[in-house]
Design brief:
Helices cover 50% and strands 12% of the residues. It is α+β, with helices and mostly antiparallel strands. The chain has one domain (10-388): Cytochrome p450. The protein has a 5-stranded mixed sheet with strand order 1-2-10-7-3. A 3-stranded antiparallel sheet has the order 4-14-11. It has a two-stranded antiparallel ribbon with strand order 5-6. A hairpin with a 2-residue loop joins strand 8 (287-289) and strand 9 (292-294). The longest helix has 31 residues, at 216-246.
């Protein structure tokens, strides 16, 4: 079958949104040139597929291309009703009130990474500040020593970089390093359990299936999966937000003068710069959408960044409007697999931007950013010049 777009082309990597706009208008159910997959580009189709696990299952993997070094893990690779059972302990840990109670600690981590970056008058933002900050926010839910948290995050960064550049050998090496640490963490937590509403490892250990707990290897694998899932998207989103702000000095000034505007700005950043392009399901049987037949077993990308710019839902969808209301974006997904960490994600973005804006009089690009390729949208490297307040 003829491909409708190539997710690895230079043109697509430079500006995927131009490709999504073309496809929404002329070929909304599009065929990718690689990996034998379809892409749903319109809002209504993404919502429908996300809401119909009987037709589009998560059990065969949730990304395009398939992760070559990952097995089936909870909760992301399970459909209802099993999925709810696996998610329930994580939902309790990630409730709004539980996240609010961690705000002071998350701010400390933001300051720890933003302050020296600003004092140095900038640098390469993503690996110097954003990535380690987001990584440590997640390890707060693991209740582990700082040196171990730093080690875990270093391996996670190397794993993600290898995946982004399709370096399977390095990804597998780092994957095994992550697994080894996660196995040790599971063993330690079994020996000394913590409150499952404050500890992700204990939350996974608390799950029961027909009265039986998960085996240790399954818990370790699920923990490794959560580690990466909780890192990739927030890092890309914060990078996109800073890139936008670096090009809009007037918006920077407005936010410094009226910090209360930031909440609406973040929602619009979430809409415009949703990072997950290759979030996926697999058709359980032949399904026809807009005249195209998706065969049983074929993978379907739910292109959240495209859905969020669908003119059928959003007036002037390419326009940045921090007062957009309503703003029913799908940055956190939709349906039973909607991200349970939305409150944590919003908070970590808010605190990083508050500290960066509050500690500078301006910041701007100091060179051309390098963008991540499929399946993530956002900067991989972002050189920033910062003027301290």
């Amino acid at each position: 079958m003829t491909a409708d777009f190539d997710p690895l082309s230079d043109e697509f990597t430079r500006d995927p949104h131009a490709t999504w706009a073309r496809l929404r208008a002329s070929c909304p159910v599009a065929r990718g040139a690689r990996w034998d997959f379809w892409a749903l580009t319109r809002y209504d189709d993404v919502v429908a597929a996300s809401s119909r696990p009987a037709d589009f299952t998560s059990s065969k993997g949730i990304v395009v291309p398939p992760n070559p070094v990952s097995g089936r893990r909870a909760p992301l690779h399970f459909d209802p009703p099993e999925h709810a059972r696996y998610r329930r302990p994580l939902n309790a840990m990630l409730r709004d009130d539980k996240i609010a109670a961690r705000k002071a600690r998350f701010r400390e981590l933001a300051i720890e990474h933003v302050e020296p970056f600003v004092v140095r008058r900038g640098g390469e933002l993503m690996f110097e500040a954003v990535s380690p900050y987001v990584g440590l926010v997640f390890t707060e839910f693991l209740n582990i020593p700082r040196d171990l948290a730093d080690e875990l995050n270093r391996h996670g960064e190397r794993f993600e970089t290898a995946q982004a550049h399709f370096d399977v050998a390095t990804a597998e090496t780092e994957n095994q390093a992550l697994y080894a640490i996660c196995r040790d963490l599971v063993a330690a937590r079994k020996a000394q359990p913590l409150d499952p509403e404050r500890d992700a490892i204990s939350a996974l250990l608390a799950v029961r299936v027909d009265g039986e707990p998960f085996d240790d290897e399954f818990v370790a694998g699920s923990l490794r999966q959560l580690l990466i899932a909780a890192h990739v998207a927030p890092v890309a989103l914060i990078g996109s937000a800073v890139l936008h702000l670096s090009r809009d000095q007037a918006l920077q000034s407005s936010l410094r003068a009226e910090p209360g505007l930031l909440a609406g700005v973040i929602e619009e950043f979430l809409r415009l710069y949703a990072p997950n392009q290759g979030f996926a399901r697999t058709a359980t049987h032949d399904v026809e959408i807009r005249g195209r037949t998706i065969r049983a077993g074929e993978r379907v990308a739910l292109v959240l960044p495209s859905a969020n710019r669908d003119p059928a839902l959003f007036e002037e969808p390419e326009h940045f409007d921090p007062q957009r209301d309503p703003n029913p974006h799908l940055a956190f997904g939709h349906g039973p697999h909607k991200c349970p960490g939305a409150a944590a994600g919003r908070l970590e973005v808010q605190l990083f931007l508050e500290e960066l804006l509050g500690r500078t009089t301006r910041f701007e690009l100091a060179g051309e950013p390098t963008m991540l390729g499929w399946p993530v949208f956002g900067p991989e490297r972002l050189p920033i010049a910062a003027v301290p307040r």
